[in-house]
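Journal club side-thread
Mid-discussion, someone asked how the predicted structure for our own chain would compare to the paper's figures. Pasting it here so we can look after the session.
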Amino acid sequence: MGGMPQRILVADDVESLRKAVDRALKLDGFETLLAADGSDALLMASESRPDLVLADAVMPGLTGHELCRILKKKDETRGIPVIIMSGEMIEEKDVVTGLEGGADDYIVKPFPMKVLLARIKAVLRRYDHGDESRGAQKRSGITLNPEARTVKVSGTAVELARKEFDLLALLLAHPGRVLKPGFLLETVWGYDLADYNDPHTVETHVSRLRKKLGPAVSKHIVSVRGIGYRFDA
């Protein structure tokens, strides 16, 4: 995160939580913007273009889900990552709705601040790695469009799950570079390796990704024994 401090917009109607998150972010070197409802958050995001929006699922004005959907539809804000946090909408269907609405992560309250910070940094890393490839990438018969989140193989659309898409995007962004499972768990999944570091998760997703891409393309995703995975263009 070199250069200027990254700015996080925190939108939550609970003042105590808003202040606690604000304090933790500032101690970790971030700048912050604070909003007490979804409508103010939308205005601030549009005007200030923060590096990430952290939004409560249930707020006056606009809910976190509504805020996320609006931000992801507008050309000027669709590139801003959004993390939804919730203490009420915590069922599987709520999380799925949030992610399908464009959220980059979903965290359930209460949460340790170090976990929240790890999630934020993981999402920011994912966007940082995508900076060089925000436009459509074309490699070895694959066309990947990060904005539309679509993948085509030799012109034919391929449906990928969210993590499969993010995994492929990261591999394509670094052709020839071996990416370790721990790096992928942090960057694609947002895990804190101190809490979860099972390479089998990556192995399973790579296997599914290869099957969906087909043999002609999947051969470019190379397993480097004992180290990680590499995309050979």
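Post-session note: Residues 113-130 form the longest helix (18 residues).
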